[in-house]
Amino acid sequence: MISNEGNIKTEFLIIGSGIAGLRAAIELSKRGRKSVLVTKSKLDEANTYYAQGGIAAVDPARVEKGLDSFESHIEDTLKAGDGLCLPSIVRKFVYRAFPDAIQFLIDQGVEFSRNEKGEYVLHQEGGHGDKRIYCRDDFTGQAIEEKLVENVKKNPQIQVFEYHTAVNLITWDLISKAKSPRNRCFGAYVLDRKTGKVKTFQANVVFLATGGAGRAFLYTSNPENATGDGIAMAFRAGARIANMEFFQFHPTVLYELRPENPAERRFLLTEALRGEAIGGKLTLQKNSTEDFVLKYDPRGSHGTRDIVARAIDIEMKKRGLSHVWLNVTPEVTGKSEEYIRESFPIIFDHCLKKGINITKEPIPVIPAAHYTCGGVVVNDSGLTNINGLYAIGEVSCTGLMGANRLASNSLTEGALYGKLAVEHALSKFISFREEEIQIPGWEVRTVLPEINDAMLNRFWDTTRYTMMEYCAIERNETRLRVALDILNGIVHITNNIYWHFHPSHAIIELRNLSLVAKLIVQSAILRKESRGGHYRSDYPDKNDEPFLGPTIIQKNRKPRILKMD
Predict the structure, then answer these.
(1) Which residues 6+ apart lie within 8 Å of 38 measured at CB?
(2) Which of 191, 281, 300, 400 has the fewest Cβ atoms within 10 angstroms?
(3) Measured between alpha carbons, how far is residue 411 from residues 243, 253, 381, 405 in Å?
(4) Does residue 281 share a domain with residue 194?
C-alpha cells in the first residue's frame, strides 16, 4: 500500500462503513490482504448503526429440535418479495445466514441478548413464521456497528480514511477512448473533506458498500449520509440499476408535531414492537384497541411493512389524520411494564423524553422512507457488470429482497455478501500492470466563486419534498410525471454546478441524491402495476404480464422490464 501526493494505491478499496463494508475489510484481513476503507463521515456513522430490530437467521440447531425450518424462512422471504425474489438466491441466503453472518458476528464479539438460561432471545417480526431474529435489546445495529468498528480500528491490515467522500468511480470507459468488450473499475476519485482536495484511489478491486437512499424523501428513518452515492456513481459508470421503485416505507416512526429539525431522521420504532415479542397494535384513535390493519390483511398489525405502511397511508388520507397510534401497553399486549422497558430501553427512554410513557399510553406514529429494495445489479457473489466492481449491502440488488424486504434480512445480507464478494474477488484477483494502466489524476477545471449554501439547500429541499409529495407510498401517472419534470430540472442544474464549481461534500451529495430520486421516479413510471412496496392507485392490481421481472435502468439505454429468468 503506497501513498504519494494524494495518489493512494491499494489492492482493495472499500467505499462505505456499514456492516457490509466492515465485513469485507475484516474478511480480507483474515486472508492476509490489506485494504483501504473510505467513509464520508465518522467510521461508525452508517445505516447499520440505526437498525433497531435485529438480524434474521435460522439456526441449524433449532431446525434439528423442530423449532424452526429453513423452508419457512425461504417461504417468508419469497412471500414478502411478492414474486420478484430470485429463489436460488433466497435459498443460498437462508442456508448460509447463520454460519456466515450470525456466527461471524458472535466470533467478532457482538453480544446478542440472552435470557436467564443463557439462551439467545429470538424475536418474531412481521412476516416471519417463527422466532429467528437475533437482537441486542432495541439497539442491535448499534451493537454490531460499534463492535466491528472497534475491531477494524485496531486492525493493521485496514487503512481507514474518515471524512472522505467518493466523487466518481474510475473506469476504463472514463479514462480511455479505446473501446473495451467489458468495462473495468480501477478505483475512485475521492474528496478529502478536511483539505478540499480530490485524491486518486487506485485499486484492483472496488467494493461499493455505501448503503441506501432514504434521504431522497422528506420523512425518513435514515441518517444524513444515506444519499444514494453508490447507486449514483455506479449508474454513471455504466452499471445496471434495478427495482428502484420498490422503496420500503417503515410503518412506524415517531410522529412529532414540531420536531426540532424537520429535515432530520425520524426516530424509528422497531418492527419488533408489532411482532411476537410485544404484539403491539395500530389503532386510529388514541383510546381504541381495534387493529385497523385487519381490514387490509388477516395478520393485521403483524403484516409485512408494505401492507401495513399502505394501510396507514390510506387511512390517514381518508380521515384527514396527521398520524395513527401504536399501542404497546400491557392492557393491549399482555406484557408487563417491566418487560417492555427492559426489552426496548432506547425506545422507552427516547419516548419518555418526548413526554410519552409507552407502558401507559399509545405512541403517535407515521410511515417514513426506510430501505432501498433495489440498487446496483450483482451476481450471487456481489459482482456488477463492471469488472473489478462489487456492490454489497443495501446499495446492491442481489435478488433477495424482490419487491419488498422481509424484516431483518438486510443486516444478514450485508454481513453475508461482505464475505461472498471477498471470496469471489480473491479468486479473480489481477495484480497491477503499471505499464498498461495509467490512471490520470483529478482534472482541475475552471472554478467559479464559491457557491451559496442556501441555493444548494433549496435544491436539496425541493428534491425531498417532490419525492414525498409525488412518489411516496401512493403513486399515479400524473403525479409521477410532475415529479420527473421537476427532477429533470434539478439533475440538470446540479450537474452544471458540479462541472463549474470545485466539488464539495454538499455538491456531491446533492448531485447523487437528485439522480437517484430521478431513477426512482423513472422506475415507478415504467411499472404500471402495484406490487410489494410500489403502489399505483391508477394501476391497483398486480399484473404478471408483462411486469413479472426486475425494472432495469442503465446509462444510455432505455429503461425496461426483464423476465424473471
Answers:
(1) 13, 14, 15, 160, 161, 164, 166, 188, 190, 201
(2) 300
(3) 19, 19, 16, 11
(4) no
Nearest one of 519, 526, 516 to 547, comparing CA atoms: 526
Instruction: Let me know whether 498 and 467 are in one domain.
Output: yes
Domain that holds residue 302: 249-369
Q: Are residues 537 and 465 in the same domain?
A: yes
Handedness of CA 346, 352, 353, 354 (dihedral sign): positive
DSSP 406: P
Residue listed under C-alpha cell 425494472: 551
In a domain, 395, yes or no: yes
For residues 30-43, average pLDDT: 95
Give strand pairing partners of 39. Answer: none
Please give the helix or strand (H or E) that residue 338 lies within, else none: helix 337-343
Asked if pLDDT for residue 476 goes beyond 90, the answer is yes
**Cell 481507514 found at:** 160
Helix, strand, or coil (residue 337): helix
User: Catalytic: which of 33, 215, 305, 527?
Assistant: 305
| 37-46 as b/e: b if 16+ CB within 10 A | bbbbbebbbb
pLDDT above 80: residue 52: no
The C-alpha cell at 279 is 404484539
What's the domain count of the chain?
A: 3
> Cell 381495534 sits at which residue?
290
pTM listed for this prediction: 0.91
The reply to whether 216 and 262 lie within a common domain is: no
305 counts as catalytic = yes
Q: How high is the pLDDT of residue 49?
A: 76
Q: What is the rounded distance in angstroms from the CA atom of residue 249 to the CA atom of residue 28? A: 34
Closest CA to 405 of 378, 375, 373, 368: 373
Q: What is the mean pLDDT of the chain?
A: 91
